[in-house]
Structure formats: structure tokens, C-alpha cells
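Researcher: Can you fold this with zinc ion in place?
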Amino acid sequence: MSVPARLDELYAIGGGTRAGYSPEEDEAHELAAGWMRDAGLEVERDVPGNLFGKRGVARIWSGSHLDTVPDGGRFDGALGVVAAIEAAARLRDLPLAVVAFRAEETGPMGSRRLAELPEAFIEVHIEQGPVLEDAGEPLGIVSSVIGQARGSKTFEGRAAHAGTTPMEARSDALVEAARFVLHVRESAQGGAVATVGAVEVEPGAANVIPGRATASLDLRAPTTESLDALIEAIGFDLAWRQDPVAMSGPPREALRAVLPDAPELVSGAGHDAMVLAAAGVPTAMLFVRSLNGGASHCPDELSSAEDIELAVDALTKTLARLSASDQAGV
Ligand SMILES: [Zn+2]
């Protein structure tokens, strides 16, 4: 069965809604397990429920996830698993493992709880953005996964009557928060992005001057230095941060050798590959062009059959190359 036909079969489970650890995700794992056996792989599951199709001493892994966001698309995650199964079927003698991680969209939960780590990991994933489509390129090599910070900023004012309090006598917390939102927007430069996606206003009534406003912050930047600078420039209560993670080592070198002309790009979204790379596994990521302006996490998500075949071919060659250098002890 072709890769697009398998993506259709997975999409039919739950109609694009397969939450982590739901019966729909279980069913997708069952379906993929059958395809793994057909590809000559031995099926195993670990304690967190990650699914493996292994052949021989599997030091090199490839895969992604089979869960989705609510009403998601047919390519996010699923493509990386199906492409890896297809590559494994084409490389009948190669020791490797295909993996479907659990609950990427709500964690990632599965890839964070691995009992063992591979020596190399490569993930095929759709770009989920418009960069490759705008550049007219079918495939891109991920250089790093963007760093992230989350937090909030609270503004204290004085709640008072909206009718009887003169303008000059007011201390309006939401007006301060509004100035802050513009400051956040102006602070994000040089490939960094920053978003206030939610503002909580108290007491939150039409006829009361806001006494307190809390703005949420989501910051992303391509380097540790630029993330530090952005946090500093905005000024807020930091709840958590994750430094950018570089794709590196033999997997990235092998991918580059297979695709010498492919452009490099920074991933603005987190992935299982980010978790493995952060845990010290040499990791590569191959992005496939997203059509429809990069639409993702929705039913409009689209990649062409031609681009998918190019990605499967590149993954197959990269795995073969990696395995050859692994056996040579390089
Ligand atoms: Zn994904």
C-alpha cells in the first residue's frame, strides 16, 4: 500500500481526532504495528506505550507520532511514522527501528519517557508553515528547533465605577496591559516571535474599571542569546523556558549528503526530535513542504504525493548511509 493510502487509512480513524492515549490513538498504533510486521519488523511496546518496529540491533531510529490535535490534519506526525515504515520496507537487511511516540501533541509524553535511547534519530515531518512553499522547495533540513519561553505579566490598577470616576482619576490595569502588548510586539525582532494570546481582566465587568489584568506570554527565538535578549527586553514573570536545540552529528551530516541543495530552516514548533536531541541523541529532521500556505493542525493540512515520495527516498538513503557509517565505526 502506498504512503498516501496509508495516511488516508490513519486519517479515517477518529476523523482526524486522535488524542494521546485515546482509543483512537490505540487503534492507529495497532494499524501501524501491522504495517511494521509487513515491513519485516518485530513489534514491541515500552512502558509509556511507545510503539517500536525493530530489526536486529536497532541503534538507528526513525519515526514520529500518531496522535493529533482535535480535528487535525492527515500529515502531522503520521507522515513521519508511515515514511519510516516504508523506508524500512525498502531496506530489508538494515538493522533499525521505526518508532511511533505516544501523545506528542499533549507533551510530548512518550518521547520524554523513553527507557532507552538510540545512537541516532531522524524524523520526517511536515513543515507546518509556508517557508518551503514560498521558496519553491519540496524538502528542507532543520538546523535547530526554536527556543521557547512562557510566562505572564500582571498589572495592578484600582477597580472603580465606570460612570462616576473621571478619566484623570483612574488607575486602569487593562490600559497598562494594552501598552505592554504593543511593547511585546515591538520587542520581537531578528527571527524571534512573541505573542500575548490571552489577557485575564478582573473583575471583568463592562461597567467596572479593570483593577487587575494578567497577560500571557509566549516567546520563541532561534538562539539561546536571542531568547535571553527577548526575555530581558520584554520583562515578565518567567514560568518556563526551553533553550533552542540543534540538530547535529551523523544523522544531520548524512541527510545533508543525500540532499546537498536542500535549504535549511529553523523549526518554530517543538517535536519528538527536539526531545531526543535535548537528551543528547544525535538527531536530524527532514521537513516536507506544507501546501495551502502552510496550513496545519486543521483539515486543510496538505503535502503532495510527489513531495512525500521525495522525502521517503531521502529518508531511505539517509538511513542506509547512517547504517554504513555506523558499521564502519565512524
Ligand atoms: Zn507533529
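Model: Folded with zinc ion in place. Residues 160 and 209 are 5 Å apart (CA to CA).
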